[in-house]
């Protein structure tokens, strides 16, 4: 397969690119700084190109004519500690989907997060509501808008929105079966964490199953 990866130079993105290459896929890394990628992953099946993720034209120019099978977004707001309002995820996703349509790429996988959409009894623990949630309200509102755009306006795209727990770690890749649920979270005890390496493993795993086509999936 040919995977176009957005956010390839990020912490999850690097794991994804490396694991995809290890499985003999080809990867087109769409990054804002190609020099940054040079020091991270090198492989003859990896092509690194520069894009402006806020420009449909820029993304289209790299996707068109390449027979890309899937676009996977590991984009993350790099100022995410900020409480300032954000439109990073929703704005960039509109440009990405516009480019996918023009380049006739019909499969999209993107990373969001647990608990972006709130409803009574959604299982958020008290400590999250009291101590953590406030800092991420702006980011989660933006992710909610991104998810709504994809689910409501992208019925022509076979999407999967992957929602990892709010604490990603640099822990190792392992082979345990991840729990998955079509909810805002997966039942858990303690502090819900997932390594970025295992998140990347799941992003690749779902390409081989139709189970999560046109769905959101929370994982742990
Ligand atoms: N961190 C967590 O605990 C956590 C929890 C739940 C969900 N998530 C979600 O998981 C995903 C991956 O997280 P992560 O920690 O692996 O992310 P990360 O390391 O911060 O990587 C973010 C990626 O997005 C790219 N990016 C940011 N702004 C960009 C821009 N304006 N133009 C082009 N590229 C841009 C970065 O490029 P550069 O390398 O050039 O900066 C980088 O490749 C994100 O969607 C995040 O919201 C994270």
TrEMBL record:
InterPro entries: NAD(P)-bd_dom (IPR016040), NAD(P)-bd_dom_sf (IPR036291). It comes from the Eukaryota. It holds the Pfam family NAD_binding_10. The lineage of its organism: Eukaryota, Metazoa, Chordata, Cephalochordata, Leptocardii. Residues 7-207 form the NAD(P)-binding domain. One of its GO terms (molecular function) is catalytic activity. This is Flavin reductase (NADPH)-like. SUPFAM superfamilies: NAD(P)-binding Rossmann-fold domains (SSF51735). It comes from Branchiostoma floridae.
